[in-house]
Amino acid sequence: MNPALNIWEKSRGLLDLIYARGLDRAPEMDCAAQGAELLAPLIGSNRPRLLDAGCAGGHFYHSLARRGLKVDYYGLDSSPQTVALAQAAFRTLGLEPRRLVLGALADLAGWKFELAAVINTLSFNPDFREPLDRILDCGVRALVIRDNFGPQTVIRWEPDGYLDEGHNHLRGYWNQWSLAETREFLASRGFQSQAVEDRRVRGQVEMVVGKPYRWSWLVAVRE
Ligand SMILES: C[S@@+](CC[C@H](N)C(=O)[O-])C[C@H]1O[C@@H](n2cnc3c(N)ncnc32)[C@H](O)[C@@H]1O
User: Which single residue of 69, 75, 131, 202 could bond 52 by disulfide (Cβ 3.0 to 4.6 Å)?
Assistant: First the structure.
């Protein structure tokens, strides 16, 4: 993506927070905590390779480590500035920066993972199918997804409005996915899924930069 158009790189405050999260110096996000807990029973004892899809600062690594959950962690994010900050944070902590990879989910090919966490990421894509397909093509046996799931799919292509001065004309996707359609898609790929209430919003609508979000989870396991 042309960096001039990347909404994820147009808020100094957000980039600072991402770096602080990468350093584990910001409060743990409720969703990272719940994601780690949902993954815990799926991990097993063979240190599975886990993809954190749309990893931002790589803070999900800390949520897993804090709980003693042993995975071979890789984070992928398509924002160069975000990945550079996450890598710098990992370097400072003595962790391997190569764990954070720059790239788009749509281009994910040739990687193998056993597990994936897709937290707050699909909504910002034109459709959920392509990124999900690429993740499933990596061979995952289970994944947890937190997204804006509702009774129907609603495509929103709107300005963020909360970016630094001069960038608020930039539009992005703020989509809601039909929960049933997403589950059908997962079933078509051989995954049985279970909907789980989000602990933070508990079925309520949360406004995210002025757009309605019905955060909830799917836990999907290959049949
Ligand atoms: C709202 S942030 C969520 C970050 C993190 N998972 C969390 O929960 O805090 C969305 C992130 O996903 C990344 N992203 C969105 N779509 C992506 C895609 N198709 N491929 C790779 N990264 C993507 C963005 O660059 C951004 O850093």
Answer: 75
